[in-house]
Specification:
flavoprotein, globular, Nitroreductase, Flavin_OxRdtase_Frp, alpha+beta, about 240 residues
């Protein structure tokens, strides 16, 4: 074990923040750390929008399903998968970009996710905390209009950052032996009963939002019904993932 691993293992979603400001130097350091993440073929296919306007934040909070921490957090960032910069590079070289491929979109979503995880880790190393906001995909077209996001770019998630006002309990992750497989894919569902018991006990013991639920029930409830069916049409409209 070392300090980096301990920092990573201590991650939890923070939704309550103190009034202490995050400085611009801190924000720039966080984004610089994000930029150090691995990137496919050096494309760096992501952009980050720092939203400070309270009216815009209020709209984003509503679009994300009424998540008030979008408005209340000292910093709110929108991480975008960005192939527009690649298109501009083609125009600079007088080359026509052959766009719209699913692989291109996958590369951009991997790039932005790696960068965002770096950003979160960097923020936590500075004593900050945060939470990812996937809810901005509830209405990505409205988010694009609000933030002037062009075609070849799409918002993937938001990120609230600030100094934690509370330290919520940490959700128990899947055991290493469940996710780490040797040589080939191997599924063994024997862990589910014990993991359900662990998650059930965690949910019952939470100091806030205690509930009765198991992991398998939570996941089955999520994937047994349609989710954000508008995304395919939206991505096509943005010129992404159509081939």
């Amino acid at each position: 074990m070392n300090q980096v691993i301990e920092l990573l293992k201590n991650h939890r979603s923070i939704r309550q923040f103190t009034d202490e400001s995050v400085t611009q130097d801190q924000l720039r350091a966080i984004i610089e750390a994000a930029g150090a993440a691995s990137t496919s073929n050096f494309i760096q296919a992501y952009s980050v929008i720092n939203v400070t306007n309270n009216i815009t934040r209020q709209h984003l909070s509503e679009l994300a399903g009424g998540q008030k921490w979008v408005l209340e957090s000292p910093i709110f960032l929108v991480f975008c998968a960005d192939l527009k910069r690649a298109q501009s590079a083609c125009e600079f070289e007088n080359i026509n970009m052959d766009s719209g491929y699913t692989e291109q979109f996958m590369v951009s979503t991997v790039d932005v996710s790696l960068a965002a995880q770096n950003a979160m880790i960097a923020a936590e190393s500075l004593g900050l905390g945060g939470v990812f906001i996937g809810g901005i995909r509830n209405n990505p077209q409205a988010v694009c209009e609000l933030l002037n996001i062009p075609k070849q770019v799409t918002p993937i998630f938001g990120m609230c950052l600030g100094y934690p006002a509370a330290q919520p309990e940490q959700k128990p992750r899947l055991p290493v032996d469940v996710v780490l497989m040797q040589e080939r894919y191997q599924e063994d569902v024997s862990y589910m009963k014990a993991y359900n018991d662990t998650c059930h006990a965690y949910y019952l013991s939470r100091s806030t939002s205690a509930r009765t639920e198991t992991w398998t029930h939570q996941i089955a409830s999520m994937v047994s019904k349609p989710a954000r069916q508008h995304m395919k049409e939206f991505l096509a409209k943005q010129g992404l993932a159509i081939k």
